[in-house]
Design brief:
The chain is mostly helical and about 150 residues long. It has 6 helices and 2 strands. A two-stranded antiparallel sheet has the order 1-2.
Amino acid sequence: MPHKPEMQGGKAFGRLKAQQEERLQEVNKEFLSDQKYSDEEDLEEKLESFKEKYVEFDLNDQGEIDMMGLKRMMEKLGVPKTHLEVKKMISEVTGGCSETINYRDFVKMMLGKRSAVLKLVMMFEGKTTVNNTPLGPPPKRDIASLP
């Protein structure tokens, strides 16, 4: 009787990630072929960036962003939210029918005309101010430079 070798953790994880990538790419193809979004500028590039963000915050690798994943996303964007605020955001995106955000809902939200809180935060992520405090010890000053 042939024995199938057990997959090691890394190989199984790689296969899981590849399957997830394929599923997300299929959803992207659906949006690219949908006439509703045909007038969207740079749709392919937007979908690719949405996919990267989605995968980054899909903490349980189940293809859905749960409450903790969304909470982590908001904290990383510098806009921490309470559990109740995160629940409200999820129900706003999913229409109250789910406790997780799947990729299709995520893309609809990002491309949609509704101004969801999460969409606004994601749009302004690149425009966040960077703390420009100098690193290291302060420069040496002489008495003449003091006010």
